[in-house]
Amino acid sequence: MGHPGTFDERPSRYRSAAYSQAGLTRVSLAQLARELADSARELVPTTADPYAAEGEFVRAAANLVEEARGLLELAVVHERCRGTGWERIADALGDDTTERDARDRYARAERELRGRMLQAWLLPERAEEIYTTPDRLAGAVADLDAWASAGGSPGEAPVSGTLPAMPVAERVAMIAEARAALDRAGSGGAEHRELEIGLCRREIELHEDLAERSPDVPEHRVALAKARERLRVLQGWSLL
Question: Domain residue spans in the chain?
Fold first, then answer.
């Protein structure tokens, strides 16, 4: 990816739209499920039982329950990202859970994770601070593929093979969400300008893709030119 002070957009295009929000949360869900499975596996052998401290098995089981709670929370967020309504989620939770109960319990987790994903999408250079970098994500997915394959899952890419990419409609919605958030925050400050630059990059990527797909639609070229000019202005300010 180009340095923030240079006009270099193409290297980041694939990465910024490689996975949808549903795809990203599915990767996180797979990773957490793997960690839970590995933790549970440690309870199977009995060879170390004579050396176990009192309460050790209860402690290990309690840790598994806590990990499972985190897995359930992430599963709910993933369902929300793939479009599942709160009523369906409440039904799946069972135990007479109402739609309001499900929303009250998990809506905050959804907002927070979506917020982190949006910031990581706008600022891939700083994504590791708030979610994960594209390079680390690619490595994590490859590692999950290998782990699942070793466990007998079919196919060469049992995790990555069917993860959804980010469609145009989702990219448009994320751009609108980011713009609204920046407008609410007001102008000024280095971080605000950095986010503005990130937003311009995502807009340029989108309009480049749309212009390539529909070269006879002049609106895409006009929007692309405006976004590029806006980026030049913002980068000029950032160097002052």
Answer: 1-17+166-240, 20-165
| pLDDT tens per residue, range 180-196 | 999 998 877 888 999 99
Nearest-angstrom CA–CA distance, 93 and 166: 28
Q: Is the whole-model pTM more than 0.70?
A: yes
- Look at residue 189 in the predicted model and tell me its pLDDT: 85
Q: For residue 23, what are the CA distances in angstroms to 27, 77, 93?
A: 6, 12, 22
Question: Is residue 224 within a helix (H) or strand (E), and if so which, with residue range?
Answer: helix 218-238
> For 102-125, how does the pLDDT look when each residue is reduced to its tens digit (9 = 90+)?
999 999 999 999 999 999 999 988
Q: What is the 3-state secondary structure (H, E, C) of 136-156?
A: HHHHHHHHHHHHHHHCCCCCC
What is the 3-class SS of 167-178, one letter each residue?
Answer: CHHHHHHHHHHH
Q: Is 158 helix (H, G, I), strand (E, B) or coil?
A: coil
CA dist 194 and 100 (Å) reads: 37
Report the alpha-carbon distance of residue 146 to residue 165 in Å, rounded: 21
